[in-house]
Every structure is written in structure tokens, then in C-alpha cells.
Design goal:
Layout lengths: L2 H7 L4 H13 L3 E5 L7 E5 L1 H25 L1 H16 L8 H16 L1
Antiparallel strand pairs: 1-2
């Protein structure tokens, strides 16, 4: 997977993802390499050691999830996950878009009224 794809999936900036992946690479849990097709692209792959740690951590993840669902209820936890997915998938205005420009215009107009 490319670092840009991973950043997109995580709704994070690519540079931030890269910064956060470096310690995992240093510890041998994943490998980051330059793409052979495009030297600007970074490919991220999990190592055998990383896969082992992921599998070893799964029971702790299940316990944490069960604890959360126990505290909030299975239905409410599901609703929260669905809401979080909708927040992540929600389209946000790009800088320079009409909505952003309209907001900036409204702010300038209000300042003139003061």
C-alpha cells in the first residue's frame, strides 16, 4: 500500500502518517521503500515481525472492544462507530472552494459592520 493511500484511509496528512510510521519501521514492524514506478511514492508493507505483533495484540483489542461495548452498550457502540464513519466520509470543502470563499466573504462583511 502506498503511504498516500494509507493517509487517505486514515484521513490524515501524508507527512503525519510518515512521521508516525518511522518508529514502526525502525523497530522492524514495517518496511517503507521507494516505488520502482514513481520515486515520489512510498510503499508501506508489514513485515513478518509486524504481522506477529498484530496477531499477538488482537486479543487485547478484542478485550478493549468488549469493555467499551459493555460500558456503553453494543447498540450505542455500533451507532458511535457508524457516526464516526460518516464523519470520516463527509465531504469537506477544499481551500478556495465556493463555500470557503463565501465564509471568508461573510467574515469580512461582518468586520465592516463593526
Amino acid at each position: 500500500m502506498t503511504m498516500a493511500n494509507l493517509a487517505n484511509i486514515m484521513t490524515m496528512d501524508r507527512a503525519t502518517v510518515g512521521h508516525n510510521l518511522r518508529p514502526l519501521e525502525r523497530d522492524g514492524l514495517l518496511k517503507i521503500r521507494v516505488s520502482e514506478e514513481d520515486r515520489r511514492v512510498r510503499q508501506v508493507t508489514i513485515t513478518d515481525r509486524g504481522r506477529e505483533m498484530l496477531f499477538a495484540a488482537h486479543p487485547a483489542w478484542q478485550k478493549a472492544r468488549a469493555g467499551f461495548e459493555s460500558a456503553f452498550g453494543v447498540r450505542e457502540a455500533g451507532h458511535l462507530r457508524e457516526l464516526m464513519k460518516r464523519v470520516i466520509d463527509a465531504p469537506l470543502p477544499e481551500l478556495g472552494s465556493e463555500r470557503t470563499d463565501a465564509t471568508a466573504s461573510a467574515r469580512r462583511w461582518r468586520r465592516k459592520l463593526k
